[in-house]
Amino acid sequence: MKTLLRFDAGADEPRWVAVNDGVMGGRSQGGPEVAGGTLRFSGVLSLENNGGFSSVRTVGRSFDFSGASAVVLRVRGDGRTYQLRLATDASYRGITVSWGGEFPTVAGQWTEVRVPLAGLRPSVRGVALQGPPMDPARVRELGLLLGDKREGPFQLDVDWIALE
């Protein structure tokens, strides 16, 4: 495995930003915090105004996933199912395409989860697309998303992210 991101002080890490359902009128709140050697993605999911998702993503750094078969994450979750999201420069009707795959968490326990790249599915704003294939050499955004349509607080801690 090749470590892609770790959250140690002083590590050369990208900046993380939140993108929540407020972009479409929803009221979910969530965001990233890097502290104590982990990335914490936490908040409160709301279904008001047809909302129901919260996400965080990297900005300011590109990644080369060439030769990798999967993304492996060491996570401590809350028992909910999250998504890994990757984006390249590909777009559909002027909107960025992202490729996503789900991974489970165990409440309060650190686990390693594996998300096969071959299983990632493209979508635009939550709508599934047929193709295009993802160019693994041109990943410009890595993200985490919760969109399980269950209201309430959530928390996902990430120790590291690696390529396999």
TrEMBL record:
Protein name per its UniProtKB record: NADH:ubiquinone oxidoreductase intermediate-associated protein 30 domain-containing protein
Q: Which Pfam families match?
A: CIA30
Ranges where the NADH:ubiquinone oxidoreductase intermediate-associated protein domain occurs: 6-158
- Domain of life here? Bacteria
In terms of SUPFAM superfamilies, this protein maps to: Galactose-binding domain-like
So what family is this one in? Answer: Belongs to the CIA30 family.
Q: Which InterPro entries match?
A: Galactose-bd-like_sf, NADH-UbQ_OxRdtase-assoc_prot30, NDUFAF1
What is the taxonomic lineage of the source species?
Answer: Bacteria, Pseudomonadati, Pseudomonadota, Gammaproteobacteria, Lysobacterales
